Amino acid sequence: MMTLWTARPPKLKNRIRKMKRLLLFLTLPMLACGGSGLAAPTITPLSPTGAVSAPQTESQSETPTSPPTLAPTINASQFPDPNNFAWVPVVDGLNRPVDLQSAFDGSGRLFIIEKYGVIRIFKDGQLMPQPFLNIEDRVDDGSNEMGLLGLAFHPDYEQNGYFYVNYTGDGGNTRISRFQAVGDSADPNSEQVLMVVDQPFPNHNGGAVVFGPDGYLYLGLGDGGAAGDPFKNGQNTGALLGKILRIDVNNGVPYAVPADNPFGNEVWAYGLRNPWRMSFDRDTGDLWIGDVGQNKYEEIDYLPAGSAGGANFGWSIMEASYGYDGTSQPGMFLPAAEYSHDFGCSVTGGYVYRGSMPEWNGVYLYGDYCTGTVWGLILSNGQWQSQVMFETDLLITSFGVDEAGELYLVSDNGSAYILARK
Predict the structure, then answer these.
(1) d(CA 119, CA 376)
(2) What is the pTM of this model?
(3) Tell me: the pLDDT tens digits for 41-88?
(4) 3-state DSSP helix/strand/coil percent for the chain, to nearest 5?
(5) Domains of the chain
């Protein structure tokens, strides 16, 4: 029987013991943190320009600052009372779900990725028995960080039926592919492989696939795995690993590189370790990135709409706002929020809420896989503020939104939930 998750006091010690035992055997796509510990975050509040407003203490000789940016357009100036809201179950019986997306085609359908290579449809309150897509025959899921990892629908999906996925194929290498669908069924033989990226290790594959407001396709790729970025891909702008890529799927064969990409290749932003989930604010166009950390810190990164490419988020010189391979360097973009592994182990990036409940409008919600904690993040009095909103005990693999802007949470226990008023 499914239960209703509401805000309640955390039970971290038992949760930590349980997760430490589980992590001896299980590492999900974004659980590539390479460290230990669990819990809720110590937030580094930042000004709208990205400058740290409180001194850091570990391996830092000077404070990195972001280039000046405009403050984000966020409606909420304070957090709602989470006790008035709950995560209401909407579907169960899923097999390791890792993402939930809408096609924004007016159908109201939700598409849920199962990591072994299947996409399911939730339609009219029911999980359809026949899969939308089944590519288990070509997905390499040889480790728990491999599989079918990301999904995005073309902005003109209603007309062309195109959608794009990120999965690990032969040899564990990342594949970005386009498929085509009609109605509730996609043709597995319609695959057009856009990109194959060699993966030196079976972890840190990233997985995010998102269309931006500019119509380009954005891809989140991890640094290639192992620990500590052994090939230093994160800071190498000539490598595709450890990056946010930006490509034009409407021109070129199989795609074109946008002329304003900063390095003359697919790279849009760099210095990322494992960008498992990212999203654009549907109202403002701001970009939010959940980047899974190494052994001490998890981070949420932010770029306002209209930002030029070339942002450097620091990895592996930095882990969040702290030195890792070296000391901090000016010009690196600091996180909007970060938390230590005293409070969690693997961040799951989320969405800015833009649904029917005005109290949540403009609040960015994100979570941690290990603890099930869900935080809200807003800009208040010129500083980023993050607050624990829910303690769920769920293994949070992803968030998603529907056509109306309502927010969903996806759990590795095989279920999906919607944020609703009690």
Answers:
(1) 29
(2) 0.86
(3) 333 433 333 333 222 323 332 333 333 344 445 578 899 999 999 999
(4) 5, 40, 55
(5) 5-421 (2.120.10.30)
